[in-house]
Design brief:
The complex is a heterodimer of chains A (472) and B (251). Chain A has 472 residues and is an alpha/beta fold. Chain A is built from 23 helices and ten strands. Chain B has 251 residues and is α/β, with parallel strands linked by helices. Chain B is built from 13 helices and eight strands. Chain B has helices spanning 9-14, 16-28, 44-49, 56-65, 77-96, 102-110, 117-125, 144-149, 155-161, 184-187, 189-204, 216-228, 238-243; strands at 2-5, 32-34, 71-74, 114-116, 137-140, 167-169, 210-213, 234-237. In chain B, helix 5 (77-96) packs antiparallel against helix 6 (102-110). The longest helix of chain B is centred in the middle third of the chain and has 20 residues, at 77-96. Chain B is globular. The model of chain B has no long low-confidence stretch (mean pLDDT 96). The chains are: A alpha/beta (472), B alpha/beta (251). Chains A and B meet through helix 1, helix 15, helix 18, helix 19 and helix 20 of A and helix 1, helix 2, helix 3, helix 4 and helix 8 of B. The complex binds iron/sulfur cluster. Residues 269, 318-324, 347, 379-382, 384 of chain A line the site of iron/sulfur cluster.
Chain lengths: 472, 251
């Protein structure tokens, strides 16, 4: 995975700042609760939601089991339709391929429709290093790009910003990138949207190269699918002469019929809409219509390794709806940036450490960035058991030792001995009860627990002593 | 019917009154309760922190200690969920690691007879009115594992509803995690405290005198914040409310 976010501090450290930022917390609370409630209503409209969810899970699992075959089929179909397929093992290779393709056109600018895969590999930065400017055209992505910020949500990358902040960013920086913001811009949503529209229109009409991701790739016909709400995607996909799509290999579905399930579950789970405003599909190239040149870059970047893990591979079922973010109490307080990746929230906590490995401080801390409350599993439209994968990855992190875990392991081992010797456990409990007057409510130093909570009083006698006296 | 009480390590050491309440309540309902002294901990803290192998002796111990009983009842949703959801996983993984099927068999014996207290009352004993009396206003926090892993649904609320003298107040954001999460409270102390403080704010705004739940670990976390803030309500395990009667009121 790209180095963009590596060198991040561990999750608890990164989260600390966000927790104490009142504006940020209020922005996040308001946004996540609004989408969460709307989603619950949209899902409740479908009597067969449980079956759809199960169908989605099975389609994805079956496809992932035979991914090698479907990818070969996809490559054949795309090629037959006039496209060119490139295989990229990692971020560097993908960036090299895309930069090479852009340079071959002689262009220095590209327009982009929001794509997690290109963010994952740090494509914009890689293009910039080659003297190529990438313009994000999704409204929220534009806000992030103009604000020299990082996305903090899968679907609403600027979720951490409020209207006032957005107005300020537009007024200050739009002129550096192209058409300036209108004089006297206010923070009304309509005015902000219009400013973005005017700014972007220039880019669309000028661009010769478009870069996209895809939500799905249909193996049987070599068709790519993007669902979006603003129409900017459709502009990027149809106006340029060259279209380059960078897509993770796990986005494959075998047939058009499979789309039926996901085109129902994705919009309801993500934006609480019954159907996506724009669903664009493109297959290779067509005479006198759309791009004349189409390239598909198939991205591995840690996915094959993830596929090899029997428990962890379910993370690859993800359709990036972001429902898990919107219900996650940890995400709501910590914000997306604390996850140190383009994939924040519960899915990020299991996906990033698998794609990147668990060596870095941030990746080793992500599996612990959850109280295991299970709300994410409940809402996931492809039934990814996120808590199960979190615990599975904790085992991997604990096993590799490293900072903190050696002491922890020793403590767990000692506790394990006591727990397997009930007499020792009983003696310890009795001793704690006898000395209970000495136990402080706040522990000095290390115990962050008692910064905001009092410890319970130790009772005069443990239960097992009561039982012995009263029932035996 | 022989019922073995799995009191859980947290209740044994820190909340013995909850265990005593379960014993009195079940005996009042005509159940013969036993307490196998060799029991210790379900292994949840170790398992959830990433030390699966260290929980294996506890799975064996649980199976052995409760072998003589028809049912295992525990006043902790998360410990019941640990047995029901994770013991089979621990067994399967041991088998997959070529260490035989003995653990999987132990799990298979433990799972079907392990019940969280409110489940046992409603589903097995078939009672909703347990004859309790508790003249207070009460709000209920459904802990995540009881809510989502066990699917306790409205069983606890139905039991509370039938308590004489008790006035139930709805808790805003009830289904949101309180932020305890075992070692999460220590490893991510800031986020955990922020979650707990929001939970406490909602609880206080109900105007109830008691916040009750079916899991003392969550109540320890919430209660710790309540006490730190000198809040006007206290945290109390549901079993202690259900055990309270006019003759022997909860004090
Ligand atoms: S893990 Fe599930 S809920 Fe989260 S973004 Fe992916 S599909 Fe949506």
């Amino acid at each position: 995975m790209s180095g963009t976010y590596l060198g991040m501090p561990s999750f608890p450290e990164a989260a600390r700042e966000a927790v104490h930022n009142e504006t940020l917390r209020e922005n996040l609370r308001h946004a996540t609760h609004t989408i969460r409630d709307k989603r619950a209503k949209a899902v409740a409209e479908l009597a067969d939601w449980a079956q759809l969810r199960e169908a989605g899970r099975q389609i994805k699992d079956r496809t992932l089991r035979h991914l090698d075959e479907y990818l070969v089929q996809l490559e054949k179909s795309v090629t037959a339709a006039g496209g060119t397929v490139h295989w990229a093992a990692d971020a560097d290779e993908a960036n090299r391929i895309v930069a090479g393709l852009v340079k071959a056109t002689g262009e220095r600018e590209v327009v982009k429709v929001k794509s997690m895969a290109t963010q994952e590999i740090g494509l914009n930065e890689a293009l910039e290093a080659e003297g190529i400017t990438a313009y994000e055209t999704d409204l929220a992505e534009l806000i992030v790009q103009l604000g020299e910020d990082r996305p903090s949500h899968i679907l609403v990358p600027a979720i951490h910003r409020n209207r006032g902040e957005i107005r300020e960013i537009f007024a200050r920086t739009m002129s550096e990138w192209g058409r300036p913001a209108p004089e006297g811009l206010t923070d009304s949503p309509a005015e902000l949207a219009e400013a973005a529209r005017l700014h972007l229109r220039e880019k669309f009409l000028r661009a010769k190269v478009g870069i996209s991701g895809a939500n799905f790739m249909v193996a049987e016909t070599g068709t790519l699918v993007v669902v979006e709400s603003e129409g900017n995607g459709r502009m990027c996909l149809t106006l340029p002469e060259t279209l380059i799509s960078v897509v993770g290999i796990e986005k494959t579905v075998p047939t058009w019929q499979d789309l039926e399930v996901f085109l129902q579950t994705l919009p309801r789970s993500s934006t609480a809409e019954r159907m996506n405003p724009y669903t664009s599909t493109w297959t290779g190239t067509t005479e006198a219509d759309g791009p004349r040149d189409f390239h598909l870059v198939l991205l591995d970047n840690g996915r094959t390794a993830t596929l090899a893990d029997e428990v962890g591979r379910q993370a690859l079922r993800c359709i990036r709806c972001s429902a898990c973010l919107n219900v996650c109490p940890v995400y709501e307080r910590a914000g997306g940036h604390a996850y140190g990746s383009v994939y924040p929230g519960p899915i990020g906590a299991i996906l990033s450490p698998q794609l990147r490995g668990t060596e870095s401080e941030i990746d080793a801390s992500l599996p612990y960035a959850s109280s295991l409350c299970g709300a994410c599993y409940d809402v996931c439209p492809v039934a990814i058991d996120i808590p199960e994968v979190l615990v599975h990855l904790r085992e991997r992190v604990a096993g590799q030792g490293g900072k903190g875990h050696r002491l922890e392991k020793a403590a767990i081992k000692a506790a394990g001995w006591v727990l397997n010797h009930p007499a020792a456990l009983a003696a310890g409990e009795k001793a704690a009860s006898k000395t209970r007057g000495l136990h402080p409510r706040r522990l000095p130093g290390a115990a962050a627990w008692t910064d905001s909570r009092d410890l319970p009083e130790v009772p005069p006698e443990p239960f097992r002593d009561w039982w012995k006296k009263n029932r035996t | 019917m022989r019922v073995g009480l799995f009191v859980t390590c947290v209740n044994d050491a820190l909340y013995p009154r909850t265990g005593i309440a379960v014993v009195k309540l079940l005996e009042r309902l005509g159940v013969e309760v036993g307490f196998p002294a060799g029991q210790t901990c379900c292994g949840q803290p170790q398992f959830n922190t990433g030390y699966r192998r260290e929980t294996e002796p506890l799975v064996r111990r649980f199976d052995r200690e409760f072998a003589p009983y028809d049912y295992v009842v525990t006043p902790s949703g998360s410990c019941a969920a640990m047995v029901r959801d994770n013991y089979p996983r621990i067994g399967r993984k041991a088998a997959a690691e070529h260490r035989g099927h003995e653990l999987a068999d132990a799990a298979a014996r433990s799972v079907p007879k392990t019940y969280e207290l409110t489940e046992f009352l409603v589903d097995v004993l078939g009672v909703v009115d347990v004859g309790a009396y508790f003249p207070h206003t009460v709000t209920y926090h459904p802990s995540c594992h009881g809510l989502r892993m066990l699917g306790l649904g409205d069983r606890p609320l139905r039991l509370l509803d039938a308590v004489r003298g008790l006035e139930l107040r709805e808790l805003a954001g009830a289904e949101e995690c309180c932020g305890f999460g075992g070692t999460f409270a220590v490893k991510n102390a800031d986020v955990s405290a922020a979650m707990g403080e929001d939970k406490v704010r909602n609880a206080v705004s109900t105007g109830a005198d008691v916040l009750c739940g079916a899991d003392n670990s969550c109540l320890m976390h919430i209660g710790g914040i309540l006490r730190r803030q000198d809040a006007p309500l206290r945290a109390l395990h549901l079993a202690e409310i259900l055990a309270s009667t006019e003759e022997e009121p909860h004090v």
